[in-house]
Amino acid sequence: MTIPNLISVFRLLIVPVVIVAILEGEWLAAFVLFLVAGISDGLDGWIARRFDMRSELGAVIDPLADKALLVSIYVTLAIVGAMEEWLVVIVVSRDVMIVLAYVVSWIMDRPISVKPIFASKVNTALLITYAVTVLASNAFAFSLGPFDEILSVGIAILTAFTLATYLVVWLRHMSA
After folding, report:
1. Domain that holds residue 140
2. CATH number, domain containing residue 48
3. Total domain count, the chain
4. Residues 6+ apart with CB under 8 A from 60
5. pTM for this one?
6. Membrane-spanning residues where (predicted)?
7. Each residue of 36-69: pLDDT tens digit?
């Protein structure tokens, strides 16, 4: 078990705590915990690369922790009315489709390696930034104004683009 893997496990464990904080209207706690989780996402990757602590487990658990954190937070924020449902549907659908593609390739005995594309890393960073911003706006009682719509539309476009890119890669892999 490497330090980056332990950080990813920590990120998985923090998910239910953040969800409960949001559901109970404890916005400051949710904001701080999610911010810590978001920072840990960058930290575990940096440590893995910098100190050559990459592992097969890390290649699976890190994106799993990202998906668990982001999907859970986005769904919870939509449930409490703090985020637009249409955006949550796009974000969650993308992750479900990607996971299903990996499962199908595995079932068909054509496993595909887990290699995030650069645009997906940018997308994840933007998703984290937006969630932190929404949590902060609730924790510190300020309005995002037009910034909310700009971020939402940008996330939707980038999310659709990354899904299309993964779909092309997956289809090429499955057709080879």
Report:
1. 3-175
2. 1.20.120.1760
3. 1
4. 114
5. 0.90
6. 12-36, 125-144, 150-171
7. 998 998 899 899 999 999 888 888 888 889 889 9
Compute φ and ψ for 80, nearest 5 degrees.
-85, 5
Of 16, 11, 18, the closest CA to residue 139 belongs to: 18
Nearest residue to 151 (alpha-carbon basis) of 91, 80, 104: 91
Question: What distance in Å separates the CA atoms of residue 15 and residue 168, rounded to the nearest whole number?
Answer: 31
- How many CB atoms are located within 10 Å of the residue 122 CB? 13
For residue 40, give Cα distances in angstroms to 44, 50, 61, 124, 142.
6, 15, 13, 13, 26
Residue spans of alpha helices (H) in 108-145: 118-139
CA distances 25 to 92, 106, 138, Å, are: 23, 41, 9
Q: How far apart are CA 117 and CA 157, in angstroms?
A: 16
* Residue of 153, 76, 152, 162 lying closest to 116 (CA atoms): 162
CA 108 to the chain's CA centroid = 27
